[in-house]
Write a structure and sequence with these properties.
Layout (H helix, E strand, L loop, with lengths): L2 H11 L3 H21 L3 H10 L13 H9 L3 H8 L12 H21 L10 H8 L10 H11 L3 H13 L15
Helix pairs in contact: 1-3, 2-3, 2-6, 2-9, 3-5, 4-5, 5-6, 6-8, 7-9
């Protein structure tokens, strides 16, 4: 599957700007980890891009719709990783790709939430600030803190370093993601 095909598939089911941005941020982080670990950047990026593709259109069936469509296209590794991106679904974590998606999904969304409440957005955001916000249950209350912890643990990364890596990746794309400081936004 090409990136263009994956993007078209995502956009066929997802219209919300915030969900499209979430898909893109997870894609960017997954690509960066693939590059760092010597894995397939295209595969990892597409996995991140499509992990919530059916969430808006089929919330009660998520992620089975996108998983089925990927399996029909012969994309079993991507489909399996997406089927496993929440530990409570009980799907085994067979590959590093599976663990990476689990580790990157919730926490990337949380980092974006932290950036959005700051006038300087991603600029100057530090991992220790994000960790402090994780301790505030009322902030971004829908983020499952246990998933964040388990994801980092399963992926074998220190949570603070992991958050720092995510911040660095997103900072490189802050204009595209519309996460540049308020005074710089046009």
């Amino acid at each position: 599957m090409t990136h263009q095909e994956a993007r078209a598939l995502l956009e066929s089911m997802t219209k919300s700007d915030s969900l499209l941005r979430h898909a893109r941020t997870v894609e960017l982080v997954m690509r960066a980890y693939a590059a760092k670990l010597g894995e397939d950047e295209e595969q990892w990026g597409i996995t991140g891009l499509l992990h919530d593709a059916d969430y808006e259109a089929y919330p009660d069936q998520h992620p089975s719709v996108i998983v089925s469509q990927l399996r029909e296209r012969g994309e079993e590794e991507i489909a399996h990783a997406i089927s496993a991106h929440y530990t409570k679904w009980g799907v085994p974590y067979n590959a590093l790709l599976d663990k990476a998606l689990l580790a990157c999904d919730e926490v990337t969304g949380f980092v974006v939430a932290c950036a959005q409440v700051r006038p300087t957005r991603l600029q100057g955001l530090e991992a220790k600030s994000v960790l402090k916000k994780l301790g505030q249950k009322s902030f971004a209350a829908s983020v499952d803190r246990e998933e964040v912890r388990l994801g980092a643990e399963m992926f074998g990364v220190d949570l603070k370093e992991h958050i720092g890596f995510i911040i660095q990746v997103l900072q490189q794309h802050q204009q595209e993601l519309q996460l540049q400081p308020v005074e710089e936004q046009a």
